[in-house]
Design a protein that fits this description.
Strand content: 15-25%
Number of strands: 6
Order of helices and strands: EHHEEEEEHHH
CATH topology: Mannitol-specific EII, Chain A
Helix content: 25-40%
CATH superfamily: Mannitol-specific EII, Chain A
Largest sheet: 6 strands, mixed
Structural class: alpha/beta
């Protein structure tokens, strides 16, 4: 059984205000610059931008899940971005994005799918999404995921 709390980098949770999707991605990417599990940060940064340029990771319901899997990353991690006003992410439902769950990790498709499916079970719940948006600290956000 996997637990999302084991992958969430609480100290990297970000409350975002930028009105530009690229700036938000840069903030999230730069927040893991010192993360030891990333062997080649510049390759990681390029991979994130390339992935997002292929197709928007805005999945609807005010959520985006940018992600990258590559051999230059030793372990999976999730960074949560909270944008209370909302940002244009070119989502499939054309709504603004308030919650960004940025996933990075090694090229382990099985574990990635398990993490992603667990994340989907939680974020499809509107009450949980709304609760995250009421948080004012990283610790409050992390606490929501303690039992998942």
């Amino acid at each position: 059984m996997i637990y999302l709390k084991d992958y969430i980098l609480t100290e990297k949770i970000r409350f975002l205000e930028s009105a530009n999707k690229d700036e938000v991605l840069d903030i999230l990417v730069d927040s893991v610059r010192s993360f030891q599990a990333i062997k080649d940060f510049e390759a990681f940064k390029r991979a994130v931008k390339e992935r997002e340029s292929i197709l928007s990771t805005g999945i609807g319901n005010n959520v985006a899940i940018p992600h990258v899997k590559m051999s230059e990353i030793d372990e999976f991690f999730i960074i949560i971005g909270v944008h209370k006003k909302g940002i244009n992410w070119e989502s499939i439902d054309e709504n603004l994005v308030n919650l960004i769950f940025f996933i990075g990790g090694p090229d382990n498709h099985n574990l990635y799918l398990r993490i992603l499916s667990k994340l989907f079970l939680i974020i499809k719940n509107k009450n949980i999404r709304d609760k995250i948006l009421t948080c004012n600290t990283k610790e409050e956000v992390a606490k929501i995921f303690e039992k998942f």
